[in-house]
Design a protein that fits this description.
single chain; alpha+beta; six-stranded mixed sheet; 19 helices; 15% strand
Length: 537
């Protein structure tokens, strides 16, 4: 295939399109429309396709056909979705040209960083430069589809941006614009149907003894929960770019073939990990009358997006990260298994089911970035990691950092120890069912006490344990939780192991993970199968 050039593409503002509204049929329909575009690319350009998942693709095309294929794919996305656009670039030099790029451009940054590495025209190097050009092209894009909205016209009752022109297929249907109507038609569930490619695949695999139905909307999804909180679950593989750069020529093997093997290992391993995790965590719920407590929005290569009842989210994260490491690892080419260990990170945003999903997505993305930072603290020992945030009250924000300020008391005290590595998260998972069985009033009293500071909370909780029955079991739970911060190098205050002093970069910080455990236990107790103890003295 030496006579072909590489072409890369990526859907613009993909999450803004999918999560433009908080309607589950709209979200599901937007994702399904984009997946259909990928299916048509696979079908039409199958022999050219190296990778095509999650809104991005990499093709190897004849130079004379590159411009035609670019225009056809751009037209495909616009025709299929009515509004989503795609940025596409293809090689004009092979190997990458030595011609200088504008200062500060991604291509020039890569060239500067790899000044001592010869431009050998290898496949991995070509992909690296092409992706740099793709990022530049996305940043420089100035046009987008435009739908005129007259000041006196009726606006769409879903997105609120475009003019309404149709109605939902409901008796009291809302007036919708063309774009929202198109997504709604694709994502709305009909009798006996399962909507969404990955939901269908999961159901056909796990439908034995299953009686629950796919939810029609988000209210149905959380219908069985004791309190109507929804979790936005967003997971993504760590340092996947470096793995793909390991594609090198071997005897009788082309680099693009190895790239395909790695991409397939990520796609199949990620999907298998999610399906196993959902069956393990939600299998019992699927056997009850009612609705599934989750909906799979997308599986794109190594990233996963799921909407799920809040009470199942932490268990799903732990199960998924465990299975991801195993399933991806066993599918990698043999020579990579020894030198690269697959890990992933997860961000979980929990809010009321009425909270705008577009904000949930942005906050979950911020949490994922925090988890990835924790996962990469030790470059020689990468780990999987989880971060989460629960918004008991709605706060209109698309950034996590201001919201996390509620856990800080001055510059030396933090009421949280997030994010957590997978090992830590598994330990916490073992504690959650114990704490979830405690009376709800006990959990609330302890959470309020922690907010008063170190010594007041320590005295209050010691007194509370002394006067309660089951005090020894609670002390044992606190000791198990404390072991997590002890392994981080923390030293506890004398008494109950609640607060730990952690020295970091010549600064002293007092942390507790008890509030995190109390919050996760409170969420876990929202599940319909959890029983709480009665208050007793």
């Amino acid at each position: 295939m030496s006579d072909r050039i590489l072409m890369a593409g990526d859907v613009d503002t993909i999450r803004e399109y999918v999560f433009e509204t908080s309607s589950l049929p709209q979200i599901r329909g937007g994702s399904e429309l984009l997946q259909e575009c990928e299916g048509k690319i696979q079908e039409k350009y199958g022999s050219y396709v190296i990778y095509c998942k999650g809104g991005s693709f990499l093709l190897q095309v004849p130079p004379g056909e590159a411009e035609r294929i670019r225009r056809e794919i751009e037209h495909l996305y616009l025709k299929q979705t009515l509004v989503a656009t795609v940025t596409i670039v293809y090689e004009t030099h092979s190997p990458p040209s030595e011609e200088p790029r504008p200062e500060g451009s991604w291509a020039q940054r890569i060239r500067d960083a790899a000044a001592g590495v010869p431009l050998d025209g290898g496949f991995a190097q070509r992909v690296l430069f092409l992706n740099a050009r793709l990022r530049e092209a996305k940043r420089e894009k100035t046009t987008a589809p435009f739908y005129e909205a007259l000041p006196f016209g009726k606006r769409c009752e879903r997105c609120g941006k475009r003019m309404a022109s149709a109605r939902e297929p409901m008796e009291d249907g809302k007036a919708l614009c063309l774009v929202c109507k198109h997504r709604d038609d694709k994502g709305r569930k009909r009798k006996g149907e399962i909507r969404g490619k990955f939901n269908q695949e999961f159901w056909h695999r796990c439908k034995k003894n299953r009686t629950a139905e796919q939810p029609d909307d988000l209210d149905h999804l959380v219908a069985s929960a004791r309190r109507k909180y929804l979790a936005f679950f967003y997971a993504d593989g760590n340092d996947i770019g470096s793995l793909l750069q390991k594609a090198r020529i071997e005897k009788g093997e082309e680099e693009e073939k190895k790239y395909r093997q790695i991409s397939e290992a990520l796609q199949k391993g990620t999907q298998e990990a999610l399906f196993q995790s959902l069956e393990a965590v939600c299998g019992a719920a699927l056997e009850r009358e009612g609705y599934w407590p989750f909906d799979i929005i997308n599986i794109g290569g190594d990233d996963v997006t799921v909407l799920i009842q809040a009470g199942y989210a932490w268990d799903l994260a732990v199960e998924f990260l465990k299975h991801f490491e195993d399933e991806v690892s066993q599918r990698l080419p043999e020579d990579l298994k020894a030198e690269w260990r697959p890990t992933a990170s997860c961000g979980i945003l929990i809010a009321d089911v009425k909270y705008p999903v577009r904000y949930m997505e942005r906050l979950a993305t911020d949490l994922l970035k925090r988890a990835k930072k924790r996962a990469k603290e030790d470059p020689q020992n990468p780990k999987s990691a989880i971060d989460f945030l629960w918004l008991p009250s709605p706060v209109a924000s698309d950034r996590v950092e201001p919201l996390l300020s509620i856990y800080r008391r001055g510059g030396e005290v933090e009421l949280t120890a997030r994010p957590y590595t997978l090992d830590e998260a598994q330990r916490i998972r073992g504690l959650i069912p114990q704490v979830a069985r405690w009376p709800r009033t006990t959990r609330h009293r302890w959470a309020e006490a922690l907010e008063r500071g170190l010594f007041q909370s320590l005295s209050f909780i010691q007194y509370d344990i002394a006067r309660e029955r089951g005090g020894k079991e609670k002390i044992a739970t606190l000791e198990q939780a404390g072991e997590i911060l002890s392994k981080r190098g923390g030293r506890p205050i004398t008494g109950l192991p609640i607060w730990y002093r952690i020295d970091n970069n010549q600064t002293v910080m007092w942390r507790t993970l008890l509030l995190d455990v109390l919050e996760l236990a409170e969420l876990h107790a929202m599940r319909p199968d959890v029983e709480e103890e009665e208050e007793g003295i």
